[in-house]
Design a protein that fits this description.
Blueprint lengths: L14 H13 L4 H8 L3 H13 L3 E3 L20 E3 L5 E7 L3 E8 L4 E8 L5 H19 L6 E8 L2 E3 L4 E5 L4 E4 L1 H9 L3 E5 H12 L8 E6 L3 E7 L2 E3 L29 H5 L1 H12 L6 H9 L3 H25 L3 E5 L6 H15 L8 E4 L4 H18 L3
Parallel strand pairs: 3-6, 6-10, 11-14, 14-15
Antiparallel strand pairs: 1-2, 3-4, 4-5, 7-8, 8-9, 11-12, 12-13
Length: 394
């Protein structure tokens, strides 16, 4: 197993250098002139920041990038594009669900090299931590074959997560409260650990490498076991002062609706999450339904109660997305999550409710679906580890 005892420091001595590196990471290869244009920095500042990144091997000049040749400006020598060397460092990302741990090994460009899944028989923090450590050790052993050190571990957890403190304040699916996960995971793995809310982690990956690249304002809404929302405003993933920005799952959509696990009534999550849909089918149909797969099958076969439950959920999700569009005016809302397996059953209701509730030009927001398996959520966790590595104080 790779020994993580010696941790390398990323050579970005200033915020400007980190900004330049992340810009190349998302948009590269870029010439120095293009870096200056995208970051708003002077040519001299770009040159100063790029030099140590090239010397340390994190950036490489790539004369073959793009059309296959260096770009020649109007005057002077050819401008050679610069790109990130993805093989310069490795990262591990872990997504925790209520019954499974998904782990990935990625390179510096967050490309998945390996993926592993292990079942979770017990949700007690000690059991989950031990199983996570075993999975991380397995991925560290695999990383030996790449000859590059693993520079960080990201862990994504649903619920109220304080990334700055590395604490899971409350995770409904794991039934955790006030678990100092970053400190505990660092102790058993020896790696620098970043812990974040799973939807925010997924949003980081979408901002840097996915459907949010190049957008200064967008949102990721996830549907499935819960309803989550990640927000990017003016180019930054927003967590809010208390770390719960974007919790549209707990926006009230029906004051007289069913009780939510948070204690309130009629939350979006209490109407539109998988468990809420199952409960609605049992309530209206008077028959047992074992799981989401059976509910979807019944709805597709024309079961009235099942179809009504999904239509009700779609209406609530559409209004929730309209709330995001009205408040923040994002260019795009990306719908993802395991609940997309049933998207055909409520897509029409989402569109209709969104159109009806979106105010004015907010209705012009590009709403698109993006099915992403849990390996991509684990990749999001790795993206947060990369983010922490790049922005760590020197």
């Amino acid at each position: 197993m790779s020994s993580p005892a010696r941790t390398e420091t990323f050579p970005a001595a200033t915020p400007a250098a980190a900004h330049i590196f992340t810009t190349v990471l998302s948009h590269g290869p870029l010439t120095r002139l293009e870096m200056a244009r995208r970051t708003g920095l002077s040519a001299a500042a770009v040159t100063k920041a790029v030099r140590p990144l090239i010397e340390s091997g994190y950036l490489v000049e790539d004369a073959d990038a793009g059309a296959g040749a260096a770009v020649r400006p109007a005057l002077g020598r050819p401008a050679t594009p610069v790109r990130v060397d993805g093989g310069r460092a490795l990262f591990i990302g872990v997504k925790l669900t209520g019954d499974e741990i998904i782990g990935v090994l990625t390179d510096l460009c967050c490309r998945i090299l390996l993926a592993r899944r292990v079942p979770l028989a017990d949700r007690h923090p000690e059991v989950v931590l031990a199983a996570t450590a075993d999975l991380v050790r397995e991925l560290l052993t695999e990383a030996d074959g790449y000859g590059v050190r693993v520079a960080g571990l990201g862990i994504a957890v649903s619920g109220d997560v304080d990334r700055a403190e590395g604490v899971v304040r409350y995770s409904p699916f794991l039934e955790w409260r006030d678990v100092a996960l970053a400190r505990l995971a660092a102790a058993v793995t020896g790696l620098p650990v970043t812990v974040d809310n799973d939807v925010r982690a997924l949003t980081v990956a979408e901002q840097w490498f996915g459907a949010g690249v190049g957008l200064s304002d967008f949102a990721v809404v996830t549907v499935g076991a819960g309803i989550g929302c990640g927000l990017v405003v003016h180019g930054r993933v927003v967590a809010g002062t208390h770390g719960v920005a974007g919790e549209i799952g707990h926006v009230t959509v029906d004051p007289g609706g069913p009780r939510c696990h948070c204690g309130n009534r009629g939350c979006l999550e209490a109407v539109a999450a998988d468990g809420a849909i199952l409960a609605r089918i049992r309530e209206t149909g008077g028959t047992e339904v074992s799981d989401t797969a059976e509910a979807v099958e019944r709805a597709r076969q024309g079961d009235t109660g099942a179809r009504e439950a999904y239509a009700r959920a779609g209406n609530a999700i559409g209004r929730g997305i309209a709330t995001v569009a009205n408040l923040l005016g994002p260019a795009r809302v990306i719908i993802s999550g395991e609940g997309l397996a049933a998207y055909d059953l409520f897509a029409e209701q989402i569109r209709e409710a969104f159109t009806a509730a979106a105010f004015g030009s907010a209705a012009r927001c590009d709403v698109q679906t993006r099915p992403l398996p849990f390996e991509e959520w684990a990749r999001g966790a790795a993206a947060t580890a990369i983010q922490s590595f790049i922005n760590a104080p020197a």
